[in-house]
Amino acid sequence: MTKNVKVRFPPSPTGFLHIGGARTALYNWLFARHHNGKLVLRIEDTDQVRSTNEATQSILESLQWLGLDWDEGPYYQSQRLAIYQESVEKLLKQGDATYIDDPEKGRAVRFKVKDVVTDIEDLIHGKIKFDTALIEDFIIQKGDGFPTYNFACVVDDGLMEISHIIRGDDHISNTPRQIALYHALGFDLPKFAHIPMILGEDGTRLSKRHGATSAVEYREKGYLPEAIINFIALLGWSPGNDQEFMTKQEMIEKFSLKRVNKSSARFDTVKLDWMNSKYIRELPAEKLASSLHYFIEKAGFDTNHLSDAWLQKLAELYKERFKTLSEFMIQTYPFFSNEIEYDNKAVEKFLKKDGVSSLISNTHAELKELKTFSIKEIEDCLRKVTTHQGIGFGKLAQPLRVAIVGKSASAGIFETLELLGKEKSLNRLEYAMKAFL
């Protein structure tokens, strides 16, 4: 096991935490936990124009939602300007940097790149060689006194004694500049591991056109954090077997950079939906019902009057039918609303048939007489109706289902009636008789 591991996750608060960033955070978190090391959270907010407090809070909340904690921080680069200034002065004194004047942007500081050939042993890609003769001198401090990205992150990584830098391979191009700064500032060089990017299903880089890309959006769509973590962990990494479902503890025990792929992973929404549905089914009824409150309220319904037992029973009844928590409301809308939409095809097929009118009327009369509206009493009642009519149960179940939920598909008819309750069930039957029969 690698000793004295210290990694960092340094998001820029110019937007929400996207899935690629979430995976980078996860890999750093898993690596730190696997090696009993530390994870530093650093907010790289030196872009004063684009950085926002809203984005910062969203990133922090997303990490917390995903269950990714940190050991140090969050540090804010905008609050560390004096520290960067010390390093700027050191480089100026050494002759490794010089002032440049710009009438519009003010006095900046430029780093002098020495022509050398250097290489690193990237922990994912292997040996990568850099020729700094191909790199021009670059700005390390802007005219407004704020450091540039490459400079600030090197100073922080050096002073925070970061041992491993695990980040997206779009940062490989930054590495030679940063190595030059490490050497000039006298810092030990960390080990680098550049993770291949995530592609959309069409093979292009994952972006908004592929659907939701931020953790916030996936939360709003009703994905469980456990499913997201499990899914993105496997976007470029494998535990070494065919295991697809893992707890965080299992991921920690099995995580290794040696098993991170060198090629890009493709984001598969179908697989994510499938994985999320599996996690939904495994949630205890109490936790599932609690998670659904937000989506019920988002649909415009008050949850204060809902019985916990009733909601748990409804969630258990339908949890095999929805892939995301937001889909729950699509499936169960008739249980919350007093008014429902009727599927015209289902109405034509099941309600507007000879004999259905008297069948529904008799069912309404029998249900109205029930003292208790429980599954057993409802079943006994409905079977009594079909026996008297001399028909199979299916002849009653389908038109009854359409009459009370507006469509031909639902959970079991006895459970559906019980959860709707006597008053709402009778009202639906009365409406159907007036409207369609």
Can you walk me through this structure?
It is a single chain. This protein has helices spanning 19-34, 53-66, 81-94, 149-159, 175-185, 215-220, 225-233, 248-254, 269-282, 285-298, 308-318, 325-336, 344-351, 356-368, 375-389, 394-405, 413-420, 422-436; strands at residues 6-9, 38-43, 72-76, 97-102, 106-111, 117-122, 126-131, 138-141, 164-168, 191-195, 198-199, 265-266. The N and C termini lie far apart (74 Å). It is α/β, with parallel strands linked by helices and 437 residues long. It has a 3-stranded parallel sheet. The chain has a 3-stranded antiparallel sheet with strand order 4-5-8. The chain has a two-stranded antiparallel ribbon with strand order 6-7. The mean pLDDT is 94. The longest helix has 16 residues, at 19-34. It has 18 helices and 12 strands. It has 4 domains: 6-74 and 197-269, HUPs (Rossmann fold, 3-Layer(aba) Sandwich), CATH 3.40.50; 80-195, Rossmann fold, CATH 3.40.50; 284-335, Helicase, Ruva Protein, domain 3 (Orthogonal Bundle); 344-436, Arc Repressor Mutant, subunit A (Orthogonal Bundle). Helix 7 crosses helix 9, helix 14 packs antiparallel against helix 15 (375-389) and helix 14 runs antiparallel to helix 18 (422-436).
